[in-house]
Model the fold of this input.
Amino acid sequence: KHKSISPESGRYIFLGHTYHWYSNDRIDFRIQSLDLKDYEMILLGGDICSESSHSDTSLLHIDSIFNISNPKVLWAIGNHDLRNGNLALIEKYTKRKSYYAKSINGLTFLVLNTNFGHTNLSTEQKEDEYKNQLQLISNLSDTITKSSHLIVLSHNVVWKDLDSTSRTFANVSKPYSFSADSSISFITDIYPNLIKIQKKNIDVIWIAGDIGKWSKNYSFKSVDGIQFLASGINNTMFLKNPDKHPNPPKDKVLIFNYDKESKKLNWNFVDLNFLYFLSQLKEKGYPETKADSLCLQIDSLYRNQEEAISVYSKRIKNTKSWLNKVKEKAHKRDIPLKEMIYRDARFLNDKMRKEKLNELYQLIPNPLFYQTNNSTKHLE
Done:
């Protein structure tokens, strides 16, 4: 029925704002192609379809991809998940409420619903739900003891009072408050509980999924050591008019690696196009070598996906062969690889030289970056 997930890999993937721009009930085609068996947990940051709960059609599609009743698939509800929809229908498929806390593998997860404003509940009922979540956070700050990390999942970037730059990254000009009630404040009603947990030597990480329209990844660490992250995608918006935006910002997903023995948790912001093309080539039988992987960096979506895959398949074969020869020459002559590249390229005609260099610099230096613990590094 759906793609299973790896039982013990220690790898988690966070996906936010995943809906296909031109469909109410479909997910971005690149997300659908991912091999989710590589991940032990799937963390959904909301806005999965444009109208996720409008009908069973959307939820059946979502469930076929993510198996949303699986206890290791966590979904923080977004505004599009409730637009023209029904929260009860989501809870029917997930078999749980839209906010809760649970422990898995020595980690505590707190999933929040910051979008009761998009339900048909009365004002009083909405405020009760928000206050119930505040109580849940408060109770957790009192009782949590054994976890190495607390990971909070929400759709909206609700910490605007803490970091003003979040206004730039969020999909809405002013990130939503946690509640429609202006008397409830993140900085006074929520943040002190996070500090209380952090002081127990439990690392607190809050992840939001409501970015992606222009800004694709966000990372901020407070003076109290609490980590805030956000990741989202949206580039299917450019499929109909790719020439107007030939180089949109690259859609990103968050990939976590958790070492259960050392209790260390690291995360990477990874280019979704990279994962998509890699999955397509793996389906066609190409080996997943480092050179293959690095060659798959692309700057924009292709209208003809099959043509793009064919082009990159040929580049892998041709460029890798030439690169191996250049590496061998550089090693024998004991000179830097870049210098050898330019020496070798001088023997090519101008057109060929430009073509080879353009291909090669998809491999060296590595163009894929990730951000971890507030530092930017090359992904090896």
User: Anything to note?
Assistant: The chain has twelve helices and 13 strands. The radius of gyration is 23 Å.
